[in-house]
Amino acid sequence: MKFRPVLLLAFVFLGIMTTSSCVKKYICHCSLAYSGAPGLPDTTYQEYDITDTKDNANSQCKTQSKVYYNNYIYTVETCYLY
């Protein structure tokens, strides 16, 4: 009967370890699309690494999404976690 508390403690420890957030390496994938004038480059892609929890990495990556406007040229940068 002394085995039961040890088994319960092991299950609690395992549960905590599997549900805790882990820091991992994620890839943020960004596409840059240009419009507004002829002769602009095709859509380009960039990737960079983010080492953090999944939620933090996702928010960091999404904050890189922007729209730029300069001399009638629109640049739309769209980023997502890959």
A few lines on this structure:
The protein has 82 residues and is α+β, with helices and mostly antiparallel strands. The protein has helices spanning 3-19, 54-62, and strands at residues 24-35, 44-52, 66-70, 73-81. It contains two helices and four strands; from the N terminus they run H-E-E-H-E-E.
Structure description:
The structure is a single chain. The chain is α+β, with helices and mostly antiparallel strands and 82 residues long. The protein has one domain (23-81). It is 32% helix and 43% strand. It has two helices and four strands. It has helices at residues 3-19, 54-62; strands spanning 24-35, 44-52, 66-70, 73-81. The chain has a four-stranded antiparallel beta sheet with strand order 2-1-4-3. The radius of gyration is 22 Å and the shape is rod-shaped. 6% of the residues are buried.
Keywords for this structure?
82 residues, 32% helix
What is the N-to-C order of secondary-structure elements (H for helix, E for strand)? HEEHEE
- Largest beta-sheet details: 4 strands, antiparallel
Question: What coarse outline follows from CA principal-axis ratios?
Answer: rod-shaped
Number of domains: 1
Within the largest sheet, what's the order of strands?
2-1-4-3
- The helix fraction, in percent, is 25-40%
Give the distance, in angstroms, between the N- and C-terminal Cα atoms: 49 Å
Unreliably modeled segments: none
Give the helix tally: 2
How many whole angstroms does the radius of gyration measure?
22 Å
Helix and strand content put the structural class at alpha+beta
Overall number of strands: 4
Rounded mean pLDDT is 87
Strand content: 35-45%
